[in-house]
Amino acid sequence: MTAGKQAADIAKLPDAMTHALRSLLGEERFLTDAESLAHYGRDWTRFVAPAPSGVLLPISISEIQTIVSLARQYQVKLVPSGGRTGLSGGAMAAKGELVLSLERMRKILQVDKAGRSLTCEGGAITGEIHRAAAEHGLMYPVDFASSGSSQIGGNIATNAGGIQVIRYGMTRNWVTGLKVVTGTGELLELNQGLVKNNTGLDLRHLFIGSEGILGVIVEATLGLTDPPKNPRVMVLGVPSMASLMHVLTGCQAQLSLLAFEFFSDLALQKVTTGQGIQPPFKDRYPFYALVEFESASAEAETQAEQLVEGCMTQGWVRDAVLSQSESQRRSLWRLREDISETIAQWTPYKNDISTTVQKTPALLSEVDALVARHYADLEVVWYGHIGDGNLHLNILKPDTVSVEEFQARCKSVSHHVFRVVQELGGSISAEHGVGLLKKDFLHFSRDPAEITLMRGIKAQFDPDGIFNPGKVFNA
Ligand code: 2HG
Ligand code: ZN
Fold first, then answer.
1. Where exactly are the structural domains of the chain?
2. Is the minimum distance from the CB of 147 to ligand 1 under 6 angstroms?
3. Measured between alpha carbons, how far is 450 from 129 in angstroms, rounded to an integer?
4. Which atom of ligand 1 sits closest to the CA of residue 392?
5. What's the predicted TM-score (pTM) here?
6. d(CA 385, ligand 2 centre) in Å
7. Which of 89, 272, 342, 374 is close enough to 436 for a disulfide, judged by CB 3.0 to 4.6 Å?
8. CA distance 352 to 270
9. 59: Cβ below 6 Å to ligand 1?
């Protein structure tokens, strides 16, 4: 990327800071052209316009420390930036901040086969971590549709979930060590990749899910595990949420489960039409389950077939397809994994909500009734990680309505949705984080005492409020 037209916002940076950054990073790694500002200033959210002052591309921890100390000296804000695949505006730079991109710090530093761990720089791409682990016969098990461009620092800062949480848990479960640069410019080495370390408060966990408000993650050590044996996928046509829960109970008891996902009929229609892929069945059903399991032996396959037959006898499953090859397994996954990207063209209003698995049908039916009342004229698409109690609710913007009008209308209904979530003891953000989009609603999931403590912790790590201001809560 070459430096082009200077954006008006660059004037906001004190000259002395601009000079210091130019001499630290050169023209090549301090970008101020309009195209770069627009590109690096935004994540995958589309409700806020990017407006950073510049983009910084450091290549070392010491450069990052210098940047933080300059930011403190001149009171300029920094937005840590990974692959910017987030959906809550956590990586948006919309107020003249400097984007601190880790994209030039993406090396895999070490794979320790005996210790089953991998150490990498904060900008390492998730998919490259998967490949590096696979070269050693191991697996980093956090996976999702955006793993080709998302970076590990961002995954950790948002405690990313994904498609196999039911088996492996969230990112938090796999982080054994972190190096972070805090808002004071200090480099902290947290937990050093240790499996066992009971020496007081574990600050590593504060950075996991911190959304960049405490500092920036510059290096991570991750646990690795064995890859699953012969994973196979079934897609099931299901008449109701209650049936889906019966199927989940059966799968938990009888299969070595890797994923249990769901999507509605409208989600299936959008993804098959949008991506030009074949629907799994001739007939249509209200919901579909995508079940992935290990089929290490002939008995495992027979057991899965018997389970599906039993569910059909009960009326819980109406139709079923089981992958017969690796390429079929991948095609079936596309029915679920490609939904988000397919519906992005309708600038959806997204809600990423959860409750306990048991209460998930109640959450879906109550929220569904509510959105049917408020959005009778809009298309509502449901899908998600039903086996984790996590539902993705997407409301599609009609072409005739402006983004601003649509957002205002949806935001006013969010209060009602989040009240239902709160009453069911759930979370207003199961995996995408609070960022900019959910911060006005944080009190639906966290009580005032917790939020006060969060502010106090932020002040300890970042006394001048340099890092990611206005995200998670107002400064
Ligand atoms: C998924 O599960 C992602 O596909 C994206 O978390 C969800 O687009 C969404 O709402
Ligand atoms: Zn998801």
1. 3-104, 108-223, 231-340, 349-435
2. no
3. 34
4. 10
5. 0.95
6. 6
7. 89
8. 19
9. no
* pLDDT tens digits, 412-421: 889 999 999 9
Percent of the chain scoring above 90 in pLDDT: 94
* Euclidean distance between the first and the last CA atom of the chain, given in angstroms as a whole number: 33
Q: What is the pLDDT of residues 249-269, one digit of tens each?
A: 999 999 999 999 999 999 999
- The CA 383 to ligand 2 mean position distance, Å, reads 8
Q: What residue owns the CA closest to ligand 1's atom 5? A: 340
- Report residue 226 CA to chain centroid gap: 23
CATH topology of domain 349-435: Alpha-Beta Plaits (3.30.70)
Probe ligand 1: pick from 271, 380, 432, max atoms within 8 Å of CB?
Answer: 432
Fold for 3-104, please state it: 3.30.43
Does 231-340 carry CATH code 3.90.930.12?
no
User: Look-up: residue for tokens 């950054």?
Assistant: 21
For 148-170, the DSSP string reads GT-BHHHHHHTT---TTHHHH--
- Interval between CA 195 and ligand 2 midpoint (Å): 28
Nearest CA to ligand 1 atom 2: 384
Amino acid at 203: L
Task: For residue 435, report the distance from its CA to the centre of ligand 2, in Å.
Answer: 16
* CATH architecture assigned to 108-223: 2-Layer Sandwich (3.30)
CA of 473 to the centre of ligand 2 (A): 23
Ligand nearest to the CA of 333: 1
Q: What is the pLDDT of residue 10?
A: 41
Query: For position 203, what pLDDT does the model report?
Result: 98
How far from the centroid of its chain's Cα atoms is residue 99's Cα?
Answer: 19
